[in-house]
Each structure stands twice: as C-alpha cells, then as structure tokens.
Specification:
Layout lengths: L3 E4 L5 H8 L3 E4 L8 H8 L4 E4 L7 H5 L6 E4 L9 H7 L2 E3 L6 H16 L2 H9 L20 E5 L3 H10 L5 E5 L6 H7 L1 E3 L2 H7 L2 E4 L13 H6 L5 E4 L8 H10 L4 E4 L18 E3 L8 H20 L11
Parallel strand pairs: 1-2, 1-3, 3-4, 4-5, 6-7, 6-9, 7-8, 9-10, 10-11, 11-12
Helix pairs in contact: 1-12, 5-7
C-alpha cells in the first residue's frame, strides 16, 4: 500500500505523475486556500506533504498529524515551518535551494531598474493619458551605472546580484553576519563593510537574507535615516526583514527616494499605505516566477519527498538529527 501524501497547492501535471509512482496523492489542483483547520484535517492521515509559504506548519498542527513523516517546502525560505517543532515530532523538513538563484537575481535587477528609473510611475502617467509633451525634467531618476550597490547578505542570491552589477560598472559593497571567503568576494567584486557604512554609502540597498527573529526589521526607521535621501531600497528576500510601516513613512517624508518590493509583512495582506505612494514599485512575491524555475522548485520538492519517505535521507534536509 502506497504512503499517502498531500500537495497543498496546484503544481505541474508531470510533478504529480512523478509523485503518483510512489504515493497515493491528494492534490489541491483547484488551488483553493486552506486555513489552519482545513490543512490539519487534510494532513491527519498523511505521511508526507508538499507545501508552500502560505502553509503554516507548527506544533499545534503537528500534534494533529501523528502519521506525518516529511514536510517539503516549495521555496528556499522556510519561516512558515517551525523547524524545532518538526524535529521534536520526528518530521523531516526540506526546502528547495539553488534552483531559483539566477531567476531571483534577475528579478532583483528588474526591481532595481524599475525603481531607479521610476518606470511604473511613468507607465501609470502614460496610461492615464497625462503625457502631452516631452519635458527635460520629467521623471528624473537615479543612474544605476557607476552607482554604489549595497548588498545585505552575500549568499547564493546576493552573489548573483553582485555579479550582474559588474555589467553596470558599479561599486559593490556588502554586509553579512560573517565575511565571505576571498574567492567569493573576488568573483562578486564586492567589499565587506559594516552595516552603518553600507547604509550611508550605497545608492541602492538590496536585501538578500533569510527571515528569522535575528533579521526581523533588519531595516527599520533608524537604518533608513542613515541612507542617502537619493537612495532606493530593494527587498526580494522576505517580508518582515523590512519594517513596512517605517518604510512607508520614509517614502512619504523623502527620507529615501524610492523602494522596490516583492515581499511584505503579513503577505498577502498589504499595508494600504503602499498603494497611495508613487515612489514604490510593488510585486506580488514573484521573484522566482519563471516557468522553468517554478517547475524546478516543484520537482525538487517532489524529489525531496520521495527521498524522505523511501530512504529517510532527503537531499535538502533542514533538521538533521
């Protein structure tokens, strides 16, 4: 008898076909939202699950799922999963690192360019029929070429972003909890600096750190006040790393010039203050959303789940014991 698994959100058909070779699969192909109660009820008799960032796995849910052996997140980040609770419950947890680095790095640059050159603001102006003539001082933006790029977190995605900056002949500085090895610094052409130096020197500040209690509101009111008034802030990492309320205030007051955001606190709920601002580019958490990359993510999560329930040794285990 095949183990039972749940796929909590719509995935690609070939991924389901692959899983069906090993498991009795229940899949949410209609992509209907599941609240905590619905998720727990659907997982009660399952041995494994493929989940997404919208699915919260905590001790309360795990207590209701005694058969559960593996939770496989279709994401690199896993702040939706209580890793310690999984460890105590004997549930393996995995993520999907590596396969989305380039795509997320590319999208970071989409946010950089759109924000620096005020693209969405200009498009809205044009679509509203307000463009009646060329003006010398219309939608003046920030030059990206030869600017200073400040990167918080020189991990896999941060390194991709840094390498892309070489083409713009930028000065790249970075800050992280620990300094990268010299080979990474050389390939990225990035110089390690303090947090304070990065904030005060960078024309563009971009964030590439995981969300955790240690990084909660890494960028808040005080940090934005250290930035140049001409600088822009980019966040394609996780909501909660930036204090959204403080950011809205900084954008309103002119403390910083603009922001490009793919993630938000309490997403998909959005602080309505963002919608009233013209100097912010907003995207609905789509940095990894190319067809090829999202397929790789789903397939890697499926491979993690197969390995977890057949060998007990998934390749991207987050809570080894």
């Amino acid at each position: 008898m095949k183990p039972k698994i749940l796929v909590t959100r719509e995935v690609f058909n070939d991924v389901l076909e692959y899983l069906s070779q090993y498991f009795d699969v229940t899949s949410n192909q209609p992509d209907l939202p599941m609240d905590a109660e619905t998720l727990a009820a659907n997982l009660a008799d399952k041995q494994g699950a493929m989940i997404t960032l919208s699915d919260k796995i905590d001790a309360t849910l795990l207590s209701r799922c005694p058969n559960l052996k593996a939770i496989c997140n279709i994401a690199v980040g896993y702040n939706n999963v209580d890793i310690e609770a999984c460890r105590k419950a004997g549930v393996m947890a995995t993520n999907t690192p590596g396969v989305l680095d380039d795509t997320t790095g590319d999208f970071t640059w989409a946010l950089v360019l759109a924000t620096a050159r005020r693209l969405t603001e200009a498009e809205a102006y044009l679509r509203a029929g307000q463009w009646d003539r060329w003006k010398l001082k219309q939608f003046l933006g920030l030059d990206v070429h030869h600017a200073t790029l400040g990167i918080f977190g020189l991990g896999r995605i941060g390194q991709v972003v840094a390498r892309r900056a070489i083409g713009f002949e930028m000065k790249v500085i970075y800050h992280d909890v620990r300094r990268a090895v010299s080979e990474i610094e050389e390939a990225s052409r990035a110089r390690f600096v303090s947090k304070e130096e990065l904030l005060s020197q960078a024309d563009i500040v971009t964030i590439h750190v995981p969300y955790s209690p240690a990084t909660h509101h890494l960028i808040g009111k005080q940090e934005m006040e250290r930035m140049k008034p001409t600088a822009i802030l980019i966040n394609a990492s996780r909501g909660g790393v930036v204090d959204d309320v403080a950011l809205i205030e900084a954008l309103l007051s002119g403390t910083i010039a603009g922001a490009g955001l793919d993630v938000f606190e309490n997403e998909p709920k959005l602080n309505p203050g963002f919608l009233a601002l013209k100097n912010v580019v907003l995207a609905p958490h789509i940095a990894s959303s190319s067809k090829a990359t999202r397929h790789k993510m789903a397939m890697l999560a499926a491979e993690n789940l197969v390995a977890a329930l057949t060998t007990g040794h998934p390749p991207n285990l987050l809570n080894p014991v």
